[in-house]
Amino acid sequence: MRKIPDNIKFAVASAAYQIEGAWNAADKSPSIWDTFCQKPGAIMDGTNGEDTCKSYEYYKRDIEMIKFLGVSVYRFSISWPRLLPDGFANKISKEGTEYYNNLINGLIENGIEPVATMYHWDLPQKLQDLGGWANPDIAVWFEDYARVLYELFGDRVKTWITLNEPKQFAVFGYGMSRFAPALNMGGIAEYLVAKNLLLAHARAWHLYDKEFRSTQKGVCGITIATDYREGETDSPDDVIAGKEAMDFEVGLYSHPIFSTAGGFPESVIRLVGQKSAKQGYPRSRLPELSTKEIKFIKGTSDFYGFNHYSTKFFTRNTYKQGMFPVPSYDDDLDAVFSIKDYKPAAVIHSTAIPWGMRKALKWVKDNCNDPEIMIFENGFGDLGGTDDVDRISYLTRYIDAMLDAIEVDKCNITVYTVWSLMDNFEWCSGLSIKFGIFETDYEDEERKRRPKCSAFWFRHLVATRTLDPGYKALREDLTF
Ligand code: NOJ
Prior knowledge:
The protein has one domain (2-225, 292-307, 345-467): Glycosidases (TIM Barrel). It is 41% helix and 15% strand. It has helices at residues 16-19, 32-37, 55-69, 80-83, 94-109, 125-128, 138-153, 166-175, 189-216, 236-258, 266-278, 291-297, 329-332, 354-367, 389-407, 453-464; strands at 2-3, 9-13, 73-77, 113-119, 159-164, 219-225, 228-231, 304-308, 311-315, 336-339, 373-378, 413-419, 438-440, 449-451, 466-467. Helix 3 (55-69) packs parallel to helix 5 (94-109), helix 7 (138-153) runs parallel beside helix 9 (189-216) and helix 8 runs antiparallel to helix 9. Bound molecules: 1-deoxynojirimycin (NOJ). 1-deoxynojirimycin is lined by residues 15, 18, 164-165, 307, 377, 419, 426, 435.
């Protein structure tokens, strides 16, 4: 039995494209995911997010579910093309504004604090047609969008997340074709957009800091997927491979914002530079950040938004050129990885390695100037079922690891969030992979939701503020 410190707020999370549906309601324009889902073969099970959980219609039931859990925070995201159908701030959708006002007001009326993500991967297609995140002008477009958000909702939203998991959509969407917009320009596009993403994030933060913070009194920061990477063995070479993998995985975004020096991590600059030269590029495929840009980006996050699911192991011993496309983000690291212990999850990115989360938290403390850490995602993906004992076991072990990070490593953690409130559209895996602690019935027109065993378990944890590994949650048949 372990007590959860009083300062930890419990939360559940979701994202607009994954739950809202209503892809063409009112004046909403298509996002890059609406476009991507139409490509044959893009989504593994052939589903899409056009309707998904229908939260646009049934958000009140979502609020009831959050209330049932007893958590004090709900993290959701705002759909840029729902609010700004042209992508630009020339036209603000009345219906889009009304939807988010209703959601935010509903949460507050029920004593739940709203945490809003500005960008959780659903870029307006119109902006993608202009290059999307590869166009440097997007930093200003994003700042304009952020201004609209602060003006409309900042009187009630006190925690803003600018970008969710930038590395993931940059690598999978620009470097590969797993995610929208499927540019598949490995080794080039993911680095180009990294720079633009950092500048866009920094602009949104500076805007809040200069013009809104004093009146709205909230906080603004970034959320970075902070999975853990470690050497395959204890050999010095493997240890270095693990460290450099961490620089590529997390440091590319965290170092420019949170480190004292600022800028991209030394190892990423070196490795991409060396490979680029060998491959005949006249300059590094990793763009340069000017001294002015380094300064502008440094220190622009009021907290470290931390998402965590898994740990991978790296070595250079068995790496051979040609294992990965050349050039590519994976190839630039000059190492291969292995995955261990991900069963019984249905996806390789929920591993049963809780100590990896503890080490990732410590890595953030040590490499990012000991920031306030808000854990904004941690969760388990399976193929469904309401008696989800494996999910409970995963969450129990990961929360236990978080408590070690707090008590032993003295990490400054203030929020713990379960991904996700309910089963939803899991990007390229479609509706078949489920992360919810509520089950969503996609056969039902009204998308009835049922609490899984894990929802009862989490509710008990939140009410008792005690982690009891022996506690057996009993499921009742309830419908929302
Ligand atoms: C991270 C992403 O932010 C979220 O959208 C996704 O569903 C989860 N990981 C699970 O894969």
